[in-house]
Structure formats: C-alpha cells, structure tokens
Design a protein that fits this description.
8 strands, elongated, 2 domains, 55% helix, 15% strand, 4-stranded antiparallel beta sheet, alpha+beta, Jelly Rolls, single chain
C-alpha cells in the first residue's frame, strides 16, 4: 500500500521535485480514502483536522450564503489539493468540499501536515503559492457574485415599486404620474451620461421614491444614491415639477443649486426630442 501511495505522490506536481526517501516518509503519514459521488468530504463551519490530495476523481468547493443559496468557488481534480486553509489559520472550514464523481483522496492529519511543512519547504512553498492564487480568484468570484445579487435585489425592488405606481395610476393619482415622469427623465439623463448598470438601477428606484416622498428603504435593499444620482434626480424633479417646458429648463439652468452640467444634458435631450411626453412651449 505504501509503495502504491509513493508512486501516486510522484505523479503530483508539487511532490515531483522530492527524493524517493522524502516521498516514502510522506507516504507513511498518508491515508487513502474513497468517497462516492455526492459525499461531503469536508463541511463548512466544521473543525479542520485533515489535508487532502486528490488521487483520482473530481470535487467541487462550495460556499453557502445566509439565504441558503450555494455558490461554487472551484472544481478540483486529479493531483489538486484542498483543505489547507483551515489548517494554516486554525479556523473552521470556510467552505464545503463534495465529490462530483467517485473520488479517491490521500489524507494527512493536522499534526502530520504541520510536520510535512517543516520537513519539506518545497511542498510548503507550492502550497502557499497555490493558496495565494486561490484566494485572489475566490475573492474576485465572491465580489462578482455579490454585485450580481445586489443588481437582482435592486431590480426586484424597482419592479415592486413600478407595480405600485401602475396601481396608483389606475386610481388617477397625480403624485404617481409625476413620480413616473421623474423616473423617465432621470433615466434618459442617466443613459446619456453613460451611468453603470448599478447606478442606473439606483437612479430609477430613487427617482420613483422622490415622487412618492419615500424617505428610506428597508435593509438590505437600501440602494443609497451617490452624488451624481442625487443631482440627476434633483434636476429631473425640478424640470417635471415646473411643467417640462423650455421656460422651465431656462429656470433650471439659472438655478445655482442645481448641477449645470446635468442641466445641459437635459437641454440636449430636449433639443433632440428624446424626452417623449415633455412640453415644448416657450
């Protein structure tokens, strides 16, 4: 069995530079174990006691958000290792590792893992280098996932408010119609200024809220507007409130409390007749 494990270790990249003697020493502290498809090899938030090297098969590393959604961080196969992070920082497991197919792993206990790092600096270097790369990739993935979730939350909230607005409009609510116009004008300005998708969602939500006099949103759906979004809404609200005419625009451009650059964008949209529903009287 030990000879078999030694041969397998030779085929793994970060052991390839080690002597046969060192590999035999590692084989002595290594245990081979097989997991069926779907088996959890390690589970998030549990204590960490072992380091794993995949001899054959495939596993996926997943993390669960508070709402129960599972996010895949990585997929590893033959020759890859996992489970090192919690052993190094002595914290609980930060993710779950589950076999995607029948998988055989080589397991090393915590005490033996620490001995391995001490006796084989080359192995320690390879593990630390790989860990650094994984942390960078995982961080980027999580940021991307959170941004996507935020956009989904914003869009959901925007759809909810829009539904309320439509219901109010059926009741001939002047406030609802004005709020929709503020949203329309704000959206046109934001698109002309090439705001990001997230900024546009925040702009539309807060523009609707402006007309309805909604002062705040419940957490975690609070799409707090930045300075640019706030200035756009201020110009749009003043324009709609003054009747959406050229005369109203002239007054807005003279108002020192409003952003002149955004007023110019609005002026350009009016001249190009890209604000449907706006008046054109002088």
């Amino acid at each position: 069995m030990q000879d078999s494990i030694t041969e397998r270790l030779k085929s793994i990249s970060f052991f390839s530079d080690m002597s046969d003697y060192d590999l035999e020493q590692i084989a002595e502290i290594t245990e081979e174990k097989t997991y069926a498809k779907g088996d959890a090899i390690i589970e998030e938030r549990t204590s960490a006691e072992r380091f794993f090297i995949i001899s054959s098969g495939k596993i996926k590393i997943t993390k669960q958000f508070e709402d129960g959604e599972e996010f895949v961080l990585a997929v590893h196969s033959d020759g890859d290792f996992f489970g090192e992070m919690a052993l190094l920082d002595e914290g609980p497991r930060s993710a779950t590792a589950r076999a995607v197919e029948p998988t055989t792993v080589l397991e090393i206990t915590r005490p033996n893992f620490e001995t391995l790092l001490y006796r084989a600096p080359v192995v320690a270097y390879h593990i630390i280098r790989e860990l650094s790369s994984r942390l960078r990739e995982t961080g980027a993935l999580l940021v991307s996932a959170l941004q996507r979730r935020n956009r989904q939350l914003y869009r959901s909230y925007l759809d909810t408010i829009t539904t309320i607005m439509k219901a109010l409009e059926k009741g001939k609510s002047g406030a609802a119609k004005q709020s929709r116009r503020i949203q329309d004008v704000s959206r046109a300005i934001g698109q002309q200024m090439k705001l990001s998708e997230e900024q546009m969602l925040t702009l539309e939500i807060n523009a609707l809220a402006e007309g309805l006099a909604i002062e705040g949103f419940p957490e975690p759906l609070s799409p707090k507007p930045g300075a640019v979004v706030q200035r756009i809404i201020a110009v749009a609200a003043a324009f709609v409130g003054a009747g959406e005419t050229q005369q109203a625009l002239k007054a807005i451009r003279q108002d020192k409390n409003l952003d002149s650059r955004i007023s110019e964008v609005l002026s350009g949209l009016l001249k190009a007749k890209r604000l449907s529903g706006s008046g054109d009287s002088t």
